[in-house]
Specification:
elongated; alpha/beta; nine-stranded mixed beta sheet; VC0802-like; Rossmann fold
Protein backbone atom coordinates (compact mmCIF):
# COMPACT_ATOMS: atom_id res chain seq x y z
CA UNK A 1 0.00 0.00 0.00
CA UNK A 2 1.33 3.42 -0.97
CA UNK A 3 2.29 5.65 1.94
CA UNK A 4 1.24 9.27 1.65
CA UNK A 5 2.98 10.86 4.64
CA UNK A 6 6.06 10.52 6.82
CA UNK A 7 5.95 10.94 10.59
CA UNK A 8 9.14 12.49 11.99
CA UNK A 9 10.17 12.04 15.63
CA UNK A 10 12.62 14.17 17.55
CA UNK A 11 13.78 13.79 21.13
CA UNK A 12 16.21 16.21 22.76
CA UNK A 13 14.34 19.27 21.53
CA UNK A 14 11.82 18.75 24.33
CA UNK A 15 14.56 19.56 26.82
CA UNK A 16 15.04 23.07 25.49
CA UNK A 17 12.09 24.75 27.24
CA UNK A 18 11.34 28.22 25.96
CA UNK A 19 13.82 27.73 23.12
CA UNK A 20 11.96 24.72 21.73
CA UNK A 21 10.48 26.69 18.82
CA UNK A 22 13.94 27.86 17.81
CA UNK A 23 15.20 24.27 17.71
CA UNK A 24 12.10 23.06 15.86
CA UNK A 25 12.43 25.80 13.25
CA UNK A 26 16.11 24.99 12.71
CA UNK A 27 15.23 21.31 12.31
CA UNK A 28 12.57 22.21 9.73
CA UNK A 29 15.05 24.44 7.89
CA UNK A 30 17.57 21.58 7.78
CA UNK A 31 14.90 19.16 6.55
CA UNK A 32 14.29 21.43 3.61
CA UNK A 33 17.97 21.92 2.81
CA UNK A 34 19.17 18.32 3.22
CA UNK A 35 16.13 16.20 2.37
CA UNK A 36 14.19 18.63 0.19
CA UNK A 37 11.09 18.52 2.40
CA UNK A 38 9.06 21.39 0.94
CA UNK A 39 6.08 21.33 3.28
CA UNK A 40 6.47 20.48 6.97
CA UNK A 41 3.50 20.34 9.32
CA UNK A 42 3.86 20.62 13.10
CA UNK A 43 1.64 18.54 15.33
CA UNK A 44 2.08 17.79 19.01
CA UNK A 45 5.51 16.19 19.42
CA UNK A 46 5.80 15.34 15.72
CA UNK A 47 6.60 16.79 12.33
CA UNK A 48 4.77 15.48 9.27
CA UNK A 49 5.87 15.73 5.64
CA UNK A 50 4.59 14.33 2.37
CA UNK A 51 6.03 10.96 1.38
CA UNK A 52 8.92 11.03 -1.10
CA UNK A 53 10.90 8.14 -2.58
CA UNK A 54 14.32 9.35 -1.36
CA UNK A 55 13.24 9.39 2.28
CA UNK A 56 16.57 7.77 3.23
CA UNK A 57 17.98 11.33 3.15
CA UNK A 58 16.09 12.00 6.37
CA UNK A 59 18.75 9.97 8.19
CA UNK A 60 21.23 12.73 7.31
CA UNK A 61 19.29 15.30 9.35
CA UNK A 62 20.63 15.51 12.89
CA UNK A 63 17.89 16.08 15.45
CA UNK A 64 15.62 13.34 14.10
CA UNK A 65 15.34 10.23 16.27
CA UNK A 66 13.31 8.16 13.79
CA UNK A 67 10.67 8.35 11.09
CA UNK A 68 7.87 6.22 9.67
CA UNK A 69 6.23 6.24 6.23
CA UNK A 70 2.52 6.35 7.11
CA UNK A 71 -1.06 6.52 5.85
CA UNK A 72 -3.66 8.86 7.31
CA UNK A 73 -7.30 8.05 8.11
CA UNK A 74 -10.07 9.77 10.01
CA UNK A 75 -10.06 9.52 13.78
CA UNK A 76 -12.48 6.64 14.26
CA UNK A 77 -11.87 3.05 15.34
CA UNK A 78 -13.77 1.77 12.31
CA UNK A 79 -11.48 3.62 9.89
CA UNK A 80 -8.39 2.54 11.85
CA UNK A 81 -9.51 -1.11 11.83
CA UNK A 82 -10.18 -1.19 8.11
CA UNK A 83 -6.89 0.47 7.21
CA UNK A 84 -5.02 -1.84 9.59
CA UNK A 85 -6.33 -4.87 7.70
CA UNK A 86 -5.17 -3.34 4.41
CA UNK A 87 -1.69 -2.71 5.81
CA UNK A 88 -1.40 -6.25 7.16
CA UNK A 89 -2.88 -8.06 4.16
CA UNK A 90 -0.93 -11.21 3.29
CA UNK A 91 1.18 -11.16 6.45
CA UNK A 92 1.44 -14.21 8.72
CA UNK A 93 3.08 -14.90 12.05
CA UNK A 94 2.99 -12.55 15.04
CA UNK A 95 2.36 -8.84 15.48
CA UNK A 96 2.16 -6.11 18.05
CA UNK A 97 0.54 -2.68 18.13
CA UNK A 98 2.21 0.55 19.28
CA UNK A 99 -0.61 3.06 19.88
CA UNK A 100 -0.04 6.70 20.82
CA UNK A 101 -3.00 8.98 21.54
CA UNK A 102 -1.84 12.61 21.57
CA UNK A 103 -5.39 13.91 21.00
CA UNK A 104 -7.05 13.25 24.35
CA UNK A 105 -10.47 13.91 22.82
CA UNK A 106 -10.30 10.50 21.17
CA UNK A 107 -12.64 8.26 23.23
CA UNK A 108 -10.23 5.34 23.76
CA UNK A 109 -6.95 5.44 25.67
CA UNK A 110 -3.78 3.94 24.19
CA UNK A 111 -4.16 0.65 26.15
CA UNK A 112 -7.81 0.41 25.08
CA UNK A 113 -6.84 0.96 21.43
CA UNK A 114 -4.21 -1.77 21.80
CA UNK A 115 -6.73 -4.29 23.15
CA UNK A 116 -9.63 -3.55 20.79
CA UNK A 117 -7.52 -3.29 17.64
CA UNK A 118 -5.44 -6.34 18.58
CA UNK A 119 -8.52 -8.50 19.03
CA UNK A 120 -9.94 -7.26 15.73
CA UNK A 121 -6.76 -8.07 13.79
CA UNK A 122 -6.54 -11.55 15.32
CA UNK A 123 -10.17 -12.20 14.38
CA UNK A 124 -9.78 -11.06 10.75
CA UNK A 125 -6.25 -12.18 9.78
CA UNK A 126 -3.90 -15.14 10.24
CA UNK A 127 -1.76 -13.08 12.63
CA UNK A 128 -1.30 -13.73 16.36
CA UNK A 129 -0.57 -11.03 18.90
CA UNK A 130 2.88 -11.16 20.55
CA UNK A 131 3.97 -8.08 22.47
CA UNK A 132 7.44 -9.44 23.27
CA UNK A 133 8.91 -10.77 20.00
CA UNK A 134 6.60 -9.79 17.13
CA UNK A 135 7.41 -10.35 13.47
CA UNK A 136 5.30 -7.39 12.38
CA UNK A 137 4.60 -3.93 13.78
CA UNK A 138 1.49 -1.81 13.47
CA UNK A 139 1.90 1.73 14.77
CA UNK A 140 -1.12 3.96 15.38
CA UNK A 141 -0.65 7.62 16.26
CA UNK A 142 -3.72 9.75 16.86
CA UNK A 143 -3.13 13.49 16.99
CA UNK A 144 -5.04 16.67 16.29
CA UNK A 145 -4.48 16.21 12.56
CA UNK A 146 -5.81 12.65 12.17
CA UNK A 147 -4.90 9.00 12.73
CA UNK A 148 -1.61 7.87 11.20
CA UNK A 149 -0.81 4.19 10.68
CA UNK A 150 2.59 2.69 9.85
CA UNK A 151 4.40 -0.65 9.80
CA UNK A 152 8.06 0.38 10.21
CA UNK A 153 10.22 2.71 12.26
CA UNK A 154 13.43 3.87 10.60
CA UNK A 155 16.09 4.91 13.17
CA UNK A 156 18.00 8.18 12.74
CA UNK A 157 21.00 9.62 14.58
CA UNK A 158 19.21 11.97 16.99
CA UNK A 159 21.21 14.78 18.57
CA UNK A 160 20.50 18.46 17.91
CA UNK A 161 19.82 20.23 14.62
CA UNK A 162 23.07 21.31 13.03
CA UNK A 163 23.48 25.07 13.29
CA UNK A 164 21.89 25.78 16.69
CA UNK A 165 25.23 25.99 18.55
CA UNK A 166 27.37 28.18 16.30
CA UNK A 167 30.44 27.14 14.26
CA UNK A 168 33.71 25.35 14.97
CA UNK A 169 36.77 24.61 12.87
CA UNK A 170 37.57 20.92 12.27
CA UNK A 171 41.13 19.84 11.55
CA UNK A 172 40.82 17.28 8.74
CA UNK A 173 43.71 14.84 8.45
CA UNK A 174 42.21 11.31 8.56
CA UNK A 175 38.99 9.32 8.96
CA UNK A 176 38.91 9.96 12.70
CA UNK A 177 38.76 13.72 12.14
CA UNK A 178 35.78 13.22 9.80
CA UNK A 179 34.02 11.39 12.64
CA UNK A 180 34.94 14.17 15.07
CA UNK A 181 33.33 16.67 12.71
CA UNK A 182 30.17 14.58 12.42
CA UNK A 183 29.87 14.33 16.20
CA UNK A 184 30.16 18.11 16.54
CA UNK A 185 27.47 18.54 13.89
CA UNK A 186 25.30 16.11 15.84
CA UNK A 187 25.71 18.37 18.87
CA UNK A 188 24.39 21.34 16.89
CA UNK A 189 27.56 22.91 15.47
CA UNK A 190 28.19 23.99 11.91
CA UNK A 191 31.71 22.99 10.88
CA UNK A 192 34.47 24.61 8.85
CA UNK A 193 36.93 21.94 7.58
CA UNK A 194 40.57 23.02 7.51
CA UNK A 195 43.93 21.27 7.17
CA UNK A 196 47.31 21.17 5.48
CA UNK A 197 46.14 18.98 2.60
CA UNK A 198 42.70 18.93 1.01
CA UNK A 199 40.82 15.71 1.74
CA UNK A 200 37.48 14.12 0.91
CA UNK A 201 34.77 15.82 3.02
CA UNK A 202 31.80 14.41 1.09
CA UNK A 203 30.50 12.53 4.15
CA UNK A 204 30.49 15.73 6.19
CA UNK A 205 28.68 17.49 3.35
CA UNK A 206 25.89 14.89 3.28
CA UNK A 207 24.99 15.75 6.89
CA UNK A 208 25.55 19.50 6.58
CA UNK A 209 22.65 21.84 5.76
CA UNK A 210 25.09 24.41 4.35
CA UNK A 211 27.76 24.07 1.62
CA UNK A 212 31.19 23.15 3.00
CA UNK A 213 34.46 24.36 1.55
CA UNK A 214 37.82 22.99 2.64
CA UNK A 215 40.24 25.66 3.85
CA UNK A 216 43.89 24.74 3.14
CA UNK A 217 46.46 26.29 5.48
CA UNK A 218 50.26 26.17 5.61
CA UNK A 219 50.78 26.20 9.37
CA UNK A 220 48.99 26.59 12.72
CA UNK A 221 49.82 30.28 12.83
CA UNK A 222 47.60 30.74 9.81
CA UNK A 223 44.86 28.85 11.66
CA UNK A 224 45.31 31.18 14.65
CA UNK A 225 44.59 34.13 12.36
CA UNK A 226 41.82 32.46 10.37
CA UNK A 227 39.68 31.38 13.33
CA UNK A 228 38.89 34.79 14.88
CA UNK A 229 38.27 36.26 11.43
CA UNK A 230 35.56 33.63 10.85
CA UNK A 231 34.30 33.74 14.47
CA UNK A 232 35.36 30.16 15.18
CA UNK A 233 35.83 29.76 18.96
CA UNK A 234 37.32 26.26 18.92
CA UNK A 235 39.35 23.81 16.85
CA UNK A 236 38.11 20.21 16.77
CA UNK A 237 40.65 17.42 16.24
CA UNK A 238 40.27 13.66 15.79
CA UNK A 239 42.78 12.57 18.42
CA UNK A 240 41.94 9.64 20.69
CA UNK A 241 43.79 8.94 23.94
CA UNK A 242 46.50 6.88 22.25
CA UNK A 243 47.25 9.75 19.85
CA UNK A 244 46.88 12.59 22.32
CA UNK A 245 49.38 15.37 21.98
CA UNK A 246 49.36 19.02 22.97
CA UNK A 247 49.27 21.47 20.11
CA UNK A 248 51.29 24.66 19.96
CA UNK A 249 48.02 26.50 19.70
CA UNK A 250 46.46 29.23 21.83
CA UNK A 251 42.83 28.58 20.84
CA UNK A 252 40.43 26.14 22.49
CA UNK A 253 40.98 22.58 21.22
CA UNK A 254 38.16 20.01 21.46
CA UNK A 255 38.79 16.26 21.25
CA UNK A 256 35.39 14.49 21.01
CA UNK A 257 37.09 11.12 20.35
CA UNK A 258 39.40 11.18 23.38
CA UNK A 259 37.74 8.10 24.97
CA UNK A 260 37.30 6.19 21.69
CA UNK A 261 39.33 3.19 20.60
CA UNK A 262 40.42 2.91 16.93
CA UNK A 263 37.87 0.10 16.56
CA UNK A 264 35.07 2.30 17.88
CA UNK A 265 36.07 5.10 15.51
CA UNK A 266 35.91 2.72 12.55
CA UNK A 267 32.56 1.23 13.63
CA UNK A 268 30.82 4.55 14.26
CA UNK A 269 32.15 6.10 11.08
CA UNK A 270 30.77 3.09 9.23
CA UNK A 271 27.34 3.74 10.81
CA UNK A 272 27.33 7.26 9.40
CA UNK A 273 28.45 5.98 5.98
CA UNK A 274 25.63 3.43 5.90
CA UNK A 275 23.15 6.01 7.19
CA UNK A 276 23.98 8.36 4.34
CA UNK A 277 23.93 5.71 1.60
CA UNK A 278 21.29 5.81 -1.14
Amino acid sequence: MAREHILLRYGELFLKGRNQSFFENKLIENLRKIAGAAKVKKVRGRLIINYFSEHHKLRQVFGLVSYSPAVKVEKSMEAIKQKSLELLTGKTGTFKIEPKRSDKRFPLTSPEINIELGKYIEAHTALTFDGANPQHLLGVEINQDGAYLFTEIVPCFGGLPTGVEGKVAVWIENDASILAGLLMMKRGCDVVPIGFKERDISLLQKFSPVPLQFKAVKNLSEVEQFMPEKELPALVVGQDFTEYKKLAFSRVVLRPLIAYTPKQVKEQLREFEVGSAN
